[in-house]
Amino acid sequence: MEGKFFSWISCSVILSLAVMIGIATPGAEAQRAFFVFGDSLVDNGNNNYLATTARADSPPYGIDYPTHRPTGRFSNGRNIPDLISESLGAEPTLPYLAPELTGENLLVGANFASAGIGILNDTGIQFINIIRITQQLQFFQQYQQRVAALIGEGQAQRLVNGALVLITLGGNDFVNNYYLVPFSARSRQYSLPDYVVYLISEYRKILIRLYELGARRVLVTGTGPLGCVPAELAMRSRNGECAEDLQRAAGLFNPQLVQMINGLNSEIGSNVFVAANAQQMSLGFINNPQAYGFVTSKVACCGQGPYNGLGLCTVASNLCPNRDIYAFWDPFHPSERANRFIVRQILTGDTRYMNPMNLSTILALDART
Ligand SMILES: *[C@@H]1O[C@H](CO)[C@@H](O)[C@H](O)[C@H]1NC(C)=O
Ligand SMILES: *[C@@H]1O[C@H](CO)[C@@H](O)[C@H](O)[C@H]1NC(C)=O
Question: Which Pfam families does the record match to this protein (predicted)?
Fold first, then answer.
């Protein structure tokens, strides 16, 4: 009797467990992994683990993050990948170098980005120890071996093929290379139009490598409005207008990126790569900050000197009391609220912003397959 009773109980426990798993499974399947590559716009804290000067691991960075502590993100709060994770219904990606990135956490994805890097190996050399893009891709390969050891090779492959990928490169190849110093070696080597052609051809190789490593949905951002950031207003602008040379660079780079991506997709025969025009996405709040609830798009919240655009954002800098009314958090990086406007366009923007389609279309398409 007693035995039977217990076996009935364990039976129903197993049954209800099965029901719970049955209910949980569609949710678990909908959860896709997310991988992030690139520079400080998307670094979630890898540089905290490196001997480099390109870091955001001390206050007031992170002041509006849920923990109100610095995390290594170059933002007062969340950055672009965090907000994409949020729209996927996922946890933020952990930095690849974070010790917590083990076991189940690996299945969420990983963030390989490192502040200061660019398309070219010699971009950001002044930051010394940063994870250049080739190394980020090698880490991605290593990550896949670790996941395969956890869930098997076939499942690992499926996780990577089904993932969303974000890659953000290019800004530093201008700011921390071509225009780093007047008459830089690069600017003597290449005219600006030739340099852009060279960058695009190198970016193409990086994207092909990502494809070879299993990426099948890749958001590729071009450069933002390089000449309009407070740092450039402080260093290069006349009367607070966006610096002409950097605007010209972004204006050459972004359309050629779209062309290159269209070419790659037609060679592959599938829309693997999607271009996100960050310059266009920022134009609205830069030209008309009040319409977006910002008091300014010229002055950084945290910094010093003209436009708070000089030097680093540190505990000794000027700090605005309300970060939500500033488009720029520090001399180079948007505030969380500006990042939200950017991610909104990534999700729902038309072809002026997203080519050949936006993220909500991607998510709807991929949910059907
Ligand atoms: C950058 O370095 C990697 C690895 O050291 C190398 O494979 C690649 O060709 C280099 N890229 C350029 C543009 O020199
Ligand atoms: C972008 O997303 C919206 C839905 O939010 C959709 O109506 C629109 O057609 C999409 N545009 C493109 C180019 O994919």
Answer: Lipase_GDSL (PF00657)
Beta-sheet pairing, 164-168 with 302-303: unpaired
Domain ranges across the chain: 31-280+337-368
Q: Which of 122, 123, 134, 206 to mutate to test the pocket of ligand 1 (most atoms within 8 A of CB)?
A: 134
- As to burial, measured by CB atoms within 10 angstroms (0-12 exposed, 13-18 middle, 19+ buried), residue 340 is middle
Q: Please, are residues 272 and 215 in contact by the beta-carbon 8 Å criterion?
A: yes
Can you give the length of the chain in residues?
369
Residues (pLDDT < 50) of the chain are 1-30
Residue nearest atom 9 in ligand 2 by C-alpha distance: 350
The pLDDT value recorded for residue 93 is 97
Is the C-alpha dihedral spanning 92, 93, 95, 100 positive or negative? positive
Assign residue 96 a region (left: φ > 0; alpha: ψ between -120 and 50; beta: otherwise).
alpha
Distance from the first to the final alpha carbon of the chain:
50
CATH class of 31-280+337-368: alpha beta
The single-letter DSSP state of residue 219 is E
The pLDDT assigned to 368 comes to 80
DSSP string, 100-149: T--GGGGGGEEE---TT--SSTTTTGGG-S---HHHHHHHHHHHHHHHHH
CA distances 331 to 81, 121, 275, 304, Å, are 20, 24, 25, 9
Give the model's pLDDT for residue 5. Answer: 40
pLDDT at 3: 42
Amino acid 22: pLDDT: 34
Q: What is the pLDDT of residue 13?
A: 41
